Amino acid sequence: MRLATWNINGLRARAELVKIWLAERQPDVVGFQELKTPTADFPHDLFAELGYHALVHGEKAWNGVAILSREPAELVQTGLPGEDELGSRLLTARIGGIEFTTVYCPNGKTLDHADFARKLRWFDNLKTHWLARERHDAVLCGDFNIVPEPLDSWRGDAADGSIFHTPEERARFDALINCGLVDLFRHHAPEEQAFSWWDYRGGAFHRRHGLRIDLILGTPGIASRVQAIFIDRDYRKKRGELTASDHAPVIADLT
Predict the structure, then answer these.
(1) Buried-state track 216-248, b at ≥16 Cβ within 10 A, e below 16
(2) Model pTM greater than 0.90?
(3) 41 and 68 in contact (C-beta within 8 Å)?
(4) 10-residue averages of pLDDT along the chain (255 residues)
(5) Are 237 and 17 in contact (CB under 8 A)?
(6) Where are the domains positioned within the chain?
(7) What does CATH list as the number for 2-254?
């Protein structure tokens, strides 16, 4: 089974590139983030032509998450309870014996912005939600907007204390991991420095100035099934006239 997550940074802008990626990479289940598209406007027919069913929790101009799957999925949860104020950011489905959740976690903007405190609260509520019931084979993936450790930032230790790299944010991430989850990429490649997001500005992608903030977390049973996991850098590159998202997909292959 091939699982993937991708912050596409606008479905309308990225639809043709996403079609190419789906046809080439052939994932079985995908969590998308940052659709910037209302649920009612989601192009189900476009993905049906490629053999995918879709569940969607969209929003006009902002946020939005979706799950694409080869086989029909059972909807489990739409939205993080108590966090409607911060928009459409969580979607859970049951597919092929796996409970699959995609999240678009709040950015926080800056350390002195009101959204930073809201971001921390959102993560606290995500942990509470995750612990509310027992989960066996489960995946939690998406854009976490947290750099788990210095190895995951091009600036290393020098970035500590800045947005995405604060002790408060990392404590929230560690609390999630302590709910019985494994960072599948880091588990598979404990020493590898690889990034999933690069700023559009300043030639960041070509200079390797990136962050690893797009993650696939899984329960131990899922972690034991990982054959390979990689960040799909090729789809951070422009394809002809098709402009890429500032995020790359992350792909995990399970037995």
Answers:
(1) bbbbeebbebbeebbbbeebbeeeeebebbbbb
(2) yes
(3) no
(4) 98 98 98 98 98 98 98 98 97 97 98 98 98 95 98 98 98 98 98 98 97 99 98 97 98 98
(5) no
(6) 2-254
(7) 3.60.10.10
Strand order in the sheet with 182-183: 74-78, 90-95, 98-104, 138-143, 214-218, 182-183
**DSSP for 90-156?**
EEEEEETTEEEEEEE-----STTSHHHHHHHHHHHHHHHHHHTS--SSEEEEEE-----SGGGBTTG
- The 3-state DSSP class for residue 68 equals strand
Longest Cα pair distance anywhere in the chain, in angstroms? Answer: 47
Tokens linked to 244: 């890429």
List the one residue out of 190, 173, 182, 168 whose CA is nearest residue 138: 182
